[in-house]
Design goal:
Arc Repressor Mutant, subunit A; D-Maltodextrin-Binding Protein, domain 2; 3 domains; 21% strand; transcription regulation; WH-like_DNA-bd_sf; WH_DNA-bd_sf; Transcriptional regulator, LysR family; LysR_subst-bd
Length: 302
């Protein structure tokens, strides 16, 4: 039987634009221009003699024909990706490229990574530490570790760990002239600030904590400011001040006694850590074992 198929590039352009909801996002994923995506989609509509999108000033909307066409196309491209992967069977050997936030890499991942390397010596790792989210295709990244709400259109995401936020300090500060026994004692100490803390993570800033506890004697405009959480952890370890710590970054230090959790106060963080990757490659053996290892390691020792 002769298969009657539209041009493959046009199908890829439509599937990506429909799945991601925009020509621009599809262009980023396929590493072409939005104009090229628009042209390919238009050519597909002419080939099929149907309208797949309603184009409005505020965005794209799938027609009923577009909605009906998309699921089978996505499944087809996933099958093609899986068929290609299956050429290597269940082999794990090869390169695995990982993008990871700098603070998570320094404070959590690097101390645990020798365990993964020991378990899977046939996997060669390439780590890219970047505060910005890497582009999977352009930067040739297999797995990204992201700190957020877990909503990543077009990607498969898996929760690695949730977090709590709580004030911490070096034990040395508890033995000085003004031990940290109550929130009011903060007036005698230097506050450490993450000045790029996202507004949605309000508990990473001092104001809501002090307001909640009725403290008006602490000047939150003073202190040391950091744009890198790992640097702030180092400052707290050195006894330079009091910080609002996150589980992934300070948990091990608290368990080992290098930092002390203060005032018996904790809040659940809005953001969590997720492992994300393109849906088409999520079941590759190397990716699957690494993500499984991340989750199991976080569950076993935080």
């Amino acid at each position: 039987m002769v298969r009657r198929l539209p041009p493959l590039n046009a199908l890829r352009a439509f599937e990506a634009a429909a799945r991601l909801g925009s020509f621009t996002a599809a262009a980023d994923e396929l590493n072409v221009t939005p104009a090229a995506i628009s042209h390919q989609v238009k050519s597909l509509e002419e080939y099929l003699n149907v309208e797949l999108f309603v184009r409005l000033p505020r965005g794209l909307y799938l027609t009923d024909d577009g909605k009906a066409y998309l699921p089978d196309l996505t499944a087809g491209f996933d099958s093609l990706a899986h068929a290609t992967d299956s050429l290597h069977g269940s082999r794990l050997d090869g390169l695995l490229a990982i993008s990871v936030p700098p603070s998570f890499a320094q404070c959590w991942l690097m101390s645990r990574l020798p365990d993964f390397c020991k378990r899977y010596p046939q996997i060669d790792l390439r780590l890219e530490s970047n505060a910005e989210n890497s582009h999977f295709i352009k930067d040739q990244i297999d797995v990204g570790i992201r700190h957020g709400l877990g909503r990543y259109p077009g990607l498969r995401s898996r929760l690695i760990m949730t977090e709590e936020i709580y004030p911490v300090a070096s034990p040395a500060l508890l033995a000085g002239a003004h031990p940290l026994r109550t929130w009011n004692d903060l007036r005698y100490h230097t506050l450490l600030h993450d000045y790029v803390a996202n507004d949605r993570e309000r508990w990473l800033t001092w104001e809501p904590w002090l307001d909640l506890n009725g403290i008006h004697t602490v000047d939150v405009s003073r202190g040391l400011q950091f744009n890198n959480s790992a640097m702030m952890v180092d400052a707290a370890l050195a006894g330079m001040g009091v910080m609002l710590g996150r589980t992934a970054l300070v948990g091990q230090h608290v368990r080992d006694g290098r930092l002390v959790a203060l005032f018996d106060s904790r809040r659940t963080a809005d953001f969590s850590y997720y492992a994300v990757c393109p849906e088409a490659t999520a079941d590759k053996p190397r990716i699957r074992v690494f993500v499984d290892w991340l989750v199991q390691t976080a569950q076993s020792n935080g």
